[in-house]
Amino acid sequence: MTxxxxxxxxxxxxxxxxxxxxxxxxxxxxxxxxxNSFLVQGDEKTALIDPVQEDTADQLLHNLQEMxxxxxxxxxxxxxxxxxxxxxxxxxxxxxxxKIVATAKVADFLGVLLHISQEDMVVVAKGxxxxxxxxxxECMPIPFAHWPDNTMYWMPQERVLFPSDLFGSHYTPxxxxxxxxxxxxxxxxxxxxxxxxxxxxHVKGYVEQVxxxxxxxxxxxxxxxxxxxxxxxxxxxRMVSDKxxxxxxxxxxxxxxxxxxxxxxxxxxxxxEGIGVKLVDLGSARHDLRVPIGMVLTETVFAGALVxxxxxxxxxxxxxxxxxxxxxxGINPPLKYIGIAGSYGWGSQMVKxxxxxxxxxxAERLEPLLVRGLxxxxxxxxxxxxxxxxxxxxxxxxxxxxx
Length: 403
Hints:
- The chain is 34% helix and 22% strand.
- It is an alpha/beta fold.
- It folds into 2 domains: 4-239, Ribonuclease Z/Hydroxyacylglutathione hydrolase-like (Metallo-beta-lactamase, Chain A, 4-Layer Sandwich); 248-390, Rossmann fold (3-Layer(aba) Sandwich), CATH 3.40.50.360.
- The strands form 5 sheets. Strands 1-2-7-8-9-10-11 form a 7-stranded mixed sheet.
- The mean pLDDT is 96.
């Protein structure tokens, strides 16, 4: 329940959940998360940027009480997803004179998700400004970053940007204004991989738009405030560029050792060729499946190639590899190459199955690498040849396409 001064007029009064393990029952959050809400105090009116998640509303209400806030004129809803809007009804009950400021798309979703009446809202559009006295908040819709309703608000007088989910991270620092920079960048990249990467074409345009604004401070909906915006803007420019490294990522499951032996040999030959290799065991007993899935998605932000390796199960891929492949097909990371490898006993349709789950991903496909049972000497030679061919492809990537 920490209150953090951002500027003379802007204060972070949102809530924290440092013990959260998974966001949306999917994303690993080893450092918890924050549900940011910003109090903006003008000379004449007071606004709150984003209600928090409903089950953390007590923290927000406590902070508003600590700030001595007796009246809210406006509650700005930048995005209707419940982790941002959930406490809206609670706030309207506490501050009945307040009006929710929302675009038409946000207003529609608030009606559907929270049954909030249009009578409680002021609907705004691109370019509209709300004057608080001495400062204004300008509406800048950013659809599909990551929902159709995401909205930024720009306060030009102090060059403060409120960009909704854009530039966010699931990270609750021990001291709010002293985040660990390495953790913050890592968690921003993880957040991007699972939230923004499917929409990176849209996001690229929004990053350019924010660069042109030249904000002094960025107040995202999750994570610490960016008091040095160039840090996150530069990171986003790399992530939306579609440039990759020459590294190879191998996501695999091995039930009885055959696929594991293939993967280790593949990694050894690639490494001997000077290619960076990352192995992620989707079947690790040490982790909930969501943890290695999150690791894979984060690595695909920059990896040049992904190999999905699986044993056959009921004639198809292992379900864990199938789930991973479905997410790769949906999230669409900027990989240059995707390969399917694995072992089988009496038959396999895993290539057909996984190709279907990959959908229209634009990455070039490598020739499938399948071995029947435990690899023999000739199988090992085929694996080595596969690795050498993949290494050659990585080395041949044009310099202008490589980070």
